[in-house]
């Protein structure tokens, strides 16, 4: 059974930063038994990633409530996420600050958490500005027991690069409950790719290119495979592919990306 000390050892051996933002996507089930369960893992991540001024960012998305037709998509009074166990533990932990992105919020831990989370106040698309900041601040994405298909940072890169066929032409209006209990509406441009149900399902197409260019460091936590991914390097590789392919659609299916592009 994994202990907190075991998790700290893995994070240290993988050189997970303590002084930069780290976005963590997890599958607790894939890890196996842990002493203290998900809360212990959250505690270990917070302690490590914020030790030297860094930020721990846990996606706490609420887009599932929009798809389910619920009136309130983002509730900042009674917080909940349509993601897994760790995101909901993060929401209940008083040390974190949740961003107000109406569909793709993140909960942030660290000394500068409130300032960082406020970036999402200005979001106009279903791409988190907090997530985009990983590139500017030379941050990382830590995938624990999940693959690149869960790497929401790649949506951010596509938006930064202006990849076509990714955002709806018209905004939609969604409701959120603010911390003061007032229900407000916000317009946002949804993710949309004509002819592709979900481009993120095919984000794994980029993995061979990421590996060739040294974007990923591998590890293992319990039974789970772990990838530590450099945001800066991933963006540079995707930009290279975008330009060399002359903006070709590469995520319509699982067809591997031609090596000539990277």
- Percentage of residues in DSSP E strands: 15-25%
Q: What is the strand arrangement across the widest sheet?
A: 4-5-2-1-6-10-9
Order of helices and strands: HEHHEHEHEEHHEHEEHEEH
Shape: globular
Helices and strands: which structural class?
Answer: alpha/beta
Question: In terms of per-residue confidence, which ranges show pLDDT below 50 for 5 or more consecutive residues?
Answer: none
Number of strands: 10
Describe it for me?
The protein has 262 residues and is α/β, with parallel strands linked by helices. It is 31% helix and 19% strand. The chain has ten helices and ten strands. The chain has helices spanning 4-13, 28-31, 37-49, 63-67, 85-92, 113-117, 129-136, 153-161, 207-212, 231-244; strands at residues 21-26, 55-59, 72-75, 97-98, 106-109, 140-144, 172-177, 183-188, 216-221, 224-230. It has a seven-stranded mixed β-sheet, sandwiched between helices. The protein has a three-stranded mixed β-sheet with strand order 3-7-8. Strand 9 and strand 10 (224-230) form a beta hairpin. Helix 1 crosses helix 3 and helix 8 (153-161) packs across helix 10 (231-244). It is globular. The N and C termini lie far apart (41 Å).
